[in-house]
Amino acid sequence: MNNEYHILSKSIFSQFPFQQTPKPIVPVEPDLLLEMTFSPKLFIINDIAEKVENLVQHGVEWLDARIDCSPSQPSDEQIKVFENFRMPYIHQTYRLTNEEKQYGKLNWLDFNSVDLDFSRLNNIPLEERLIFKLEEDFGYVFIHESVIELLKKHVKDVWVRDV
User: What is the DSSP letter of 20?
Assistant: First the structure.
């Protein structure tokens, strides 16, 4: 079952199927913005987000989102905000290890030394675990292959913001 999921995380981002696309000659809005923080976020342009929302209805709340790409202290001409995005607020979590939750600690899970037990998901219907976070460490977002394939069909421009 572990090969059914892709993990979005700052620490193992190079293995994620979506990476920064080359800057186009003509400026365009991204279809997908990945914000790489301690708890990664996905911002999906509205028309694609609608398709993903139809698939992912459990465990997330879909929120309207604004993306501010302005430099710090911008002049009026430099203000650049995109308003036609949605983001999944992921509240579904599952425990896949025997590790303790990392409340305010700096020692995060190391995927090289921890084993994930995906069999813990066996009794959970697929539609309830298409996107979820790891209960033990919110720095990992698990996205089912079906969601990734849907995104691959529609996403052309990906921006990555490492915060």
Answer: P
Residue 69 burial (10 A CB sphere; 0-12, 13-18, 19+):
middle
Question: Does residue 154 contact residue 31 with C-beta atoms inside 8 Å?
Answer: yes
Q: Quick check: 97 and 115 in contact, CB under 8 A?
A: yes
Alpha-carbon gap, residue 75 to 26, rounded angstroms: 22
Q: Report residue 75's pLDDT band, with 50, 70 and 90 as the boundaries.
A: confident
Which of the 8 DSSP states describes residue 3? G
**38 or 127: which leads in pLDDT:** 127
> Beta strands 131-134 and 137-144: pairing type?
antiparallel
Helix, strand, coil: what percent of the chain each, to 5? Answer: 20, 30, 45
pTM of the model: 0.88
What does 93-157 look like in DSSP terms, one character per residue? EE--SSPPP-TT-S----TTT----GGGGTTS-GGGSSEEEETTEEEEEEEEHHHHHHHHHH---
pLDDT(156) > 80: yes
Q: What is residue 163's predicted lDDT score, i.e. its pLDDT?
A: 78
Residue 38's Cα: distance from chain center in Å? 12
- Per-residue CA distances from 45 to 14, 86, 109, 120 (Å): 23, 6, 31, 33
Assign 153 a pLDDT band (cuts: 50, 70, 90): very high
